[in-house]
Amino acid sequence: MELKCVTVIFCILGATAIALASVEEPPKWPPVYIVEGSLHVPTSDIEEPFKAWYDSIAGRSRIDYYGGTVKTYQVPGQPHGEIVHIEVMPVSNGTVNIMHQFYVEDPGTLDIQPALPETKNMEFAGSETFMSVECDRYTMKIKAGNKLEINTLWVQYINPANQSTLRVPVPKRFDRKVYTDYNVFEHFYIDYYYLDPGHIPADVFEISIEKDGQILNSGLDFGINPMGNYIQYDRDHLSRRFQQFLFEYNKSYTTATEAEYRRDIFYQNLLYIQSKNRANLGYTLAVNRFADLTQDEMKAFQGRRPSTRPNSGKPFPYQRNEVEGNFPEQLDWRISGAVTPIKDQSMCGSCWAFGTVGAVEGAYFMKTNKSLRLSEQAVMDCSWAYGPRGCFGGSEVDALSWIKAVGGIPSDEEYGPYLAMAGYCHLSNMTLRVPIADYYIVPRNDPDALKFALFKHGPVVVGIESAKMDFSFYKSGVYSSGCSNMINHNVLAVGYGVLNGKPYWLVKNSWGIDWGNGGYILMSAEGNTCCILRQPVYVTM
């Protein structure tokens, strides 16, 4: 990580505002200041730059995030001067992003938002070299139940020219760690790069965007005051958001310890979601039923494993001149009925079965022009001899090899419901309604070949890397996150197109309709996003 120096402007410092009586007293911040820095959450790979204007005399504050992509204001409102929170952020109308203004009105409960931490209960913990400068360190420990919260502040003191008795506090870093009995801890820190404790021009607090009239509920959605989620010690607002989550997803826990553990995970995931959305990445995230799970627990939903058998899929049978230009500009197989409704694999690593069955359902539609729900449970129960391991994972090519060998798979209705676990194979005396002729491997890293295969043969099963947190909480837009080269999840490509100038693959997931955009995701078609072009496979009958 690159360390940056803190720039301090002394031109109009007032000694009465910042002089310290004793070296061991915690620092006292000026009543008016401008500060720049960046907020870091190491466990979530977040680095969020900000610039803040704080004026406690006039009762107003403003913080810009990600270079002004999102701006939050806390200013006196009408008619009695109660503080009003306003957020200005880009909103897509489907073609372009337009800046909109949202606001929270809750008289008597809102206040202006500092960007420097409260220090009155901090204790002097010694002097040390920090970020290559001499700093004083202050700490505050808060013990609550099985939780220990440790807040640490490093401050550099500077003597302005001709004022040797005045020690000006300059913040370097504020760090918070929360330890628990179950070895899960929360950690974030704020690095400060620039401080100007001087006059703030009045136009800084002028808002040129017209009010939309959209009110955000201050009791539930606190993405409108991001800094407060981090540096304030009172987190009642996050508790209210957690209660809403429990109600919305009908969640309950067996013990108080489990409830507290899940609440802590929810807090970290919520703050991650809000930070990523402020970055205006071109796609948005949202709280969903996974918001109380860790990323390690999400591995239970990612069951694609490499095949250990020779790949018996046939090579792509088309030449380059047969492919180029011989497909439409956009395609969506949902419209014609080639795609069955969104399914839910539950907490079982059976994505390989869902992706495979989706491709067979698509091939069935291409042959008969009829939609038929086929049985993932049959594939899970009966394909073990070919490599798959039920909820412990499998691969699409092994599953297709089994389907071809046994002559097809039964319908959902005939075989029985999905169990989210492997059961006894009971294919005997059933009508194997959907045999397949073969399955073909689309050339690697060839978007034109995948488009042609989709157009010519219907939905295609693909392997992707889905371990990133932003994939877990994807909601809308064209997903373009950086991924590793490790495929761990099977999904179904069902089309392609362009949104706001960004090409995408239309992908059906198997995590239920509350995930993503009704169960679907638009994955960027610029490059090999999350390995989607590594090994696409289509089925023929």
Automatic annotation (TrEMBL):
GO: which molecular function terms?
cysteine-type peptidase activity
KW Disulfide bond (keyword) present: yes
Q: Where is the Cathepsin propeptide inhibitor domain?
A: 242-298
Q: Does Secreted appear among the keywords? A: no
Q: Write down the PROSITE patterns for this protein, in alphabetical order.
A: THIOL_PROTEASE_ASN (PS00640), THIOL_PROTEASE_CYS (PS00139)
Q: Which UniProt keywords apply?
A: Disulfide bond, Hydrolase, Protease, Signal, Thiol protease, Zymogen
SMART domains membership: Inhibitor_I29, Pept_C1
| Biological process according to GO | proteolysis
Q: Which domain of life is it from?
A: Eukaryota
Gene3D superfamilies the record matches = Cysteine proteinases
Region: Disordered; residue ranges are 300-319
Family, per the entry? Belongs to the peptidase C1 family.
Task: Report what the protein is called.
Answer: Uncharacterized protein
Source organism: Hermetia illucens (Black soldier fly)
- Upper classification of the organism: Eukaryota, Metazoa, Ecdysozoa, Arthropoda, Hexapoda
